[in-house]
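Regression check, adenosine-5'-diphosphate case 374:
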Amino acid sequence: MAKVLLENVSKVYAGGVKAVDDATLEIGDQEFVVLVGPSGCGKSTTLRMVAGLEEISSGNIFIDGKRVNDVPPKDRDIAMVFQNYALYPHMTVYKNMAFGLMLRKYPKNEIDQRVRKAAQILGITDEQLQRKPKALSGGQRQRVAVGRAIVRKPKAFLFDEPLSNLDAKMRVQMRAEISKLHDRLKSTMIYVTHDQVEAMTMGDRIVVMKDGVIQQVAEPLGLYDNPRNMFVAGFIGSPPMNFFKGAIEQRQGGLWFVEQAPGDGKGFAIRVNDDMAKKLAGYVGKPVVFGSRPEDINDKQHAAFAEPDQTAAATVEVVEPMGAEIYLYLNTGRHSFVARVNPHQKADVGQKLDMAFDMRKSHFFDSQTEQVIV
Ligand code: ADP
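Current build output:
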């Protein structure tokens, strides 16, 4: 197993698209790292450069301390699992899993041992081993694709959106299975997805990318609690963090956030907690964006965190009962936002509520740079 290091790696495709821009990333031995971001942000290209399927335009990639820029894929000793499984349709499951080892001229009994061990780990039955891929469900095919990677005992596993073709229920199940597999094999895994829930639930660490640039690298809760910029704040979490435009004002001996949409009058005003006010001192009179997660907003009648000078009047526009919780879609007159509240709370469309914000968990961003202030 191995450490994977990317050092100032960039990729410019013919035609000039800069798919990856100066990526530096160290993936520890046995670590499970997830690359996540919207379609086209450069995740697959990054993974394919590690695999050797795509040439590196500049920078270096090291696997297990060895520079691999010019090492062909087959000699990098890593295994890749794709979204479309890429199984050989005319071969049995057994042969699909054995084939790579046969090409490498492994002894027959060694191959047999490895295939059966992988099948056992993945819950592939002896009977299934004799079937052709078309006689398997999507989830079973994906298991075979993973099995084919396991038998090689590679230095690292690379997964490129492996669960995208599965239905929602199967995706949740395979997500847990791949996590268990990581615990069991204790191998380095790099996993690409556009799905932030997959990233949050599977990764030891998450790498958020946008437009070819790494935005932030952190553990799941670190990303959630302390996003570095508005992109990460809005991408991680569902429903996403609410953003309110406005400005910081000095009032009554403290700092307040005053809502103001561009070209519009002032809206609600809420007091900023003292510990955060220190970091916002340089922003008095300047535009900022206030960010608050749906679970940090509630009707003041129901919020343990409610403070009288930290509420905003809003009108209920949509009530979405989710079973375990309710999403309330509200509007202040200048901004729409969503609150995630207790399933037994009553709220009616058109009702005016005083919504309390948990300002201990508030986020403020610079309007210009979109970087976090506090
Ligand atoms: P992601 O995996 O995050 O969806 P990709 O790494 O596939 O993103 O693509 C990143 C960018 O590079 C996109 O703008 C995409 O259109 C472009 N791109 C990907 N592959 C090629 C290619 N073979 N030739 C030219 N441009 C490409």
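Comparison notes: The chain has ten helices and 20 strands. Residues 321 and 327 are 6 Å apart (CA to CA). No diff flagged against the previous build.
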